[in-house]
Here is the input.
Amino acid sequence: IDWKSLGYDAKQIGPQKVTYFVTDSMKQASSLSRWISNVDDQTVYDKTENLYLRADNFSISLNDVHSLTENMVKKESKSLSWLAEPTNSEAVFTEKAEDNKLSNLVKVNKEQLAAIQEVSDTSDVKPYPLDLTYTDKVDGKEKTVTKRIWVFVTVDTTTIDNGVALYVNDFTIKLEEAQSATVTSVLKKDNYKQTQPNAVVYDYLSQPQKSNQLTPLTKGEVDGEAKGLSIENSSMLRLKGAKNQEVITDFVITYNIKTVA
Here is the structure.
């Protein structure tokens, strides 16, 4: 079946008007058009309410959180909203932030947004929940659907790549401890006497809708290297080879995304 010629593109998220052509027993041809909503894992919807809302997680530097606005949230999350049967076939999305089409029908939770704007300390950088709610009329009645995304507040030592977010801190270690250090002794809090690297890994694409805290894939202070965290060999060699007090730059902590927790 040539779906594109019928009006359907499997790669396009959102409502698409598909035309079916049928022939009866008398070889009389007729056509029928239907709206089909193509969704992905980032889309929430209620088939009984006929509302659809899509948005991505996104990251923002700690330096920029104070100026984060509702419209910025929409653009960064690439928010999309639509009805199962759009009333205007020429403008099928009620909101499409990527095209600067923003709607008052989609609202960002003000309390959650304020909590993100107020983050000021490096110890508080992490993913924060943020709800977007789409409200529209269906069959004359007001209906709503809510999508929870996660805003990853980051600093210079945060890395987001390959669908994971790795948070680490600069840290200090006593010279005598550095010379006998192991990967586990650096990562694990129980074995550490001064400031910790606090290595934590999150699934950057995960979007749990009910939780107020995003569960880490692993925490170095708890799991050590058991669930994919490690330290580059060259970094460990520089640490263990330290003869005097010094600052070791580009100390690299890594996460193996193929590790099964």
Remarks:
- The radius of gyration is 25 Å.
- Helices lie at 3-6, 70-77, 110-117, 175-178, 183-187, 220-223, 233-240.
- The mean pLDDT is 87.
- Residues 228 and 256 are 5 Å apart (CA to CA).
